[in-house]
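Protein modeling request. Please complete all fields; requests missing the sequence field cannot be processed.
Requester role: graduate student
Desired output: 3D structure, token encoding
Chains: 1
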Amino acid sequence: MAVSDWQDFIEQTDKRMADLRKGIPGVAQGFHEIAKSAIGKGALDSKTKELIALAIGITVRCDGCLAYHARAAAKFGASREEVMEAIGVAVYMGGGPSMIYGAEALAAFDSFRDI
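Delivered output (115 residues):
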């Protein structure tokens, strides 16, 4: 799926996720705790962790992952050059399909850079 408006995509996905969280509150809370712990302070800073998550999102071809982790990478101060290098690693690991999703990830990041 080619997303044309990443911010609108997140708004729509947030609404769907809110409904899902209501139906599986325990699982949703557990996932929230995993995410908070995984991205929190540690040996790697949050920006680096978000770049890793973005690269994984590219290799598994997850539009939602691209949207949320591109936005978070921008929030944590990632530069466009850092995103490009993360995309390069994803392409190395994921081949041609990662090239396509890498382009999508860059479009997502660009849409959140100036927020």
